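Long-time lurker. I teach an intro course on protein structure, and each term I like to show students one example going from raw sequence to a predicted 3D structure in token notation. This year I'd like something fresh instead of my usual example. Would anyone be willing to generate the tokens for the chain below so I can use it in lecture? Attribution to the forum is fine with me.
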Amino acid sequence: MGHGKQLAELRQDLDTLRRDFKRLELEWTDMYDRIHRTLMKVSRRAQRQEHAESETGLPTVDGHTTGDGPASLSGSRAEIQRQILERRKGGNSGVLPG
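-- Reply from a regular --
Happy to contribute to a lecture. Here you go:
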């Protein structure tokens, strides 16, 4: 009698372990899929950014130029930006009229 009860408990434990393992397996598969999709999005975004940078020659953030270059500024603003950059480098040509 005692062996039958132990055997029943072992079978119940085994069934519980199988269910738990299956649940964990499903959770892992779901997590793996989510991580894979996220990595693919990041990869595509990086490819788009590299493509945009190679076309414009300017660094981009989320597909938009960062404005680090004078090409993103118009006329007098580009000249002022150039003068500011010259002053930062220590050049005399960038002195703004006072």
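Some talking points for your students: Strands lie at 60-61, 64-65. The first helix runs from residue 2 to 56.
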